[in-house]
Design goal:
Two copies of one chain form a homodimer. By secondary structure, chain A is α/β, with parallel strands linked by helices. Chain A is about 45% helix and about 10% strand. In chain A, strand 7, helix 7 and strand 8 form a beta-alpha-beta unit. In chain A, helix 10 packs parallel to helix 12. At the A-B interface, helix 7, helix 8, helix 9 and helix 10 of A face helix 7, helix 8, helix 9 and helix 10 of B.
Amino acid sequence: MEEKRDVILTEVALRDGSHAIRHQFTVEQVTQVAKGLDEANVPYIEVSHGDGLGGSSLQYGFSRTNEMELIEAAAATVKQAKISVLLIPGIGTKQELKHAAQLGAKMVRVATHVTEADVAPQHIALAKDLGLETVGFLMMSHMAPTEKLVEQAKLMESYGADSVYVVDSAGTLLPHEVKERIRALRQSLSIDIGFHAHNNLSLAVANSITAIEEGARRIDGSIRCLGAGAGNTQTEVLVAVLDRLGIQTGVDLYKMMDVAEEIVAPILEKPQEITKDGLVLGYAGVYSSFLLHAQAAARKFGIDSRDILVELGKMKVVGGQEDMILDVAAELAKKLQTAGL
Amino acid sequence: MEEKRDVILTEVALRDGSHAIRHQFTVEQVTQVAKGLDEANVPYIEVSHGDGLGGSSLQYGFSRTNEMELIEAAAATVKQAKISVLLIPGIGTKQELKHAAQLGAKMVRVATHVTEADVAPQHIALAKDLGLETVGFLMMSHMAPTEKLVEQAKLMESYGADSVYVVDSAGTLLPHEVKERIRALRQSLSIDIGFHAHNNLSLAVANSITAIEEGARRIDGSIRCLGAGAGNTQTEVLVAVLDRLGIQTGVDLYKMMDVAEEIVAPILEKPQEITKDGLVLGYAGVYSSFLLHAQAAARKFGIDSRDILVELGKMKVVGGQEDMILDVAAELAKKLQTAGL
């Protein structure tokens, strides 16, 4: 018997949460967590390196365990849940996607920067050929004006995506910004809309509720808040709030609480909280990879790294443009000097 | 020069936050935190035992340092901030309030259960006589229907309170419930309305924004989320979000981030997070003091303690009625048996 689900949750602790433990998941941990989530009737469980298939590298951090082993273990464990993988074209390859599908993955989220959906069509086409449910995952969604976001989401739909996600990668969107974006997508697309939050501004649960109120039907959560930066939307908390609101997720709240406390919490090296760095990233709306660069540039020019990050956020600088950080710092230092500060 | 403040913050880490470190604050810690908050231009800093003046006891936990020493140290440290104290009639006494005022406290929040404002008039009158700014602080505000809350708030106003707070002691209010309550108070009172949140459902920041949108002008925060249970509204996060919304707190965001990271975080025994117990309390909307009783009763009757807590929440059982927990557990066990579960 299928439970009624008003909202369909995807649990990302075994993917985005991988960042929180420096990609050190073991097969045993993934098996235990997947078993618990499956028993709690979570419909989708994502398993991949934090940066998606093929992310294990010097640049993104090496995984302790080959992600294919983790995917295979999770797929072999679950009885009702479907295993999802994340694929960022340019990091992961079509070969890796095929391999994940062979091992039992049933869904793939093809992730691109919010303005670069046009790198996704081949990967989406392959995913459909492989019989996978396919999601267009628009990262750093705050960096595009709403019209641009709609245009890019429609591209994802045109490539064959079954649903498209607004991804608040930097945890920077405010509730009214989520509302505007989801509403516009809901009016322009006929496929399901999803929302993926980060908790840098402590708004992940509230923003997820707002998204649901505006018609998002797919929501990501991470049990015990296990995710990059300040973590994602804490799944068991979201389930509790939605239950109070009369919105059915089909997920067993008590079981999720138990899995969070007994299986996931002991895996964490330290609890997820909103630290200074996490808050700065959410406030400025920039990539976490900018943080160390900005701190180095700040030391060089004798200014505050936060001013650099806020300026980078305003300029909507994207990943790969790290060399601009020194220019921005130099410019800021000059302005401050001129202003006599 | 007075900064423009659209919203007036009261920092409660040195009072509500005292719970998070089992009331072990030292004079040196309080002095350092108060100095940092004062330099960040926080207008009010509350210092007391977690359960208010006179809270140091076998029942509520003994303080490491006499709270009067902590109040005196904080008052001697601040240059612009005003020191606040919490007074729960029945726990704290008028004598203690006089003593706190002599030591430099400039504000008192007279706290009662949401339906028991009528125990406050003498304490409010004394506070006014002492020249203190005086706040009516309606705890467990979710337990009264909105009309009752308005009635009780009007009592606080009639006793002479300068402002009245909706206090979400169990961290259980949902955004639409905050909206309804603050709106009703705004329409019925002429004094300032305040809001004090807890983060059990990860909604403290969002609920505080909702309260401000509905006209609340006074908001409580706890730096680094330091507070009872899942903590309160993380002050530096709230300041960042309000800044993004163009709402002036007059508080220096960068300085608050630094104080959180460098002074407050090292004091914590472990970071604040939303654990199973914290979530259960917020979901059920009950006193934290019920938790151990419910767990004991659950073991006795072989049922889940969460079912007991949810039932107690529905029945709106209040502190002092702990003896009802066994009755509720027995009743639940009987029902489950009858239902063949």
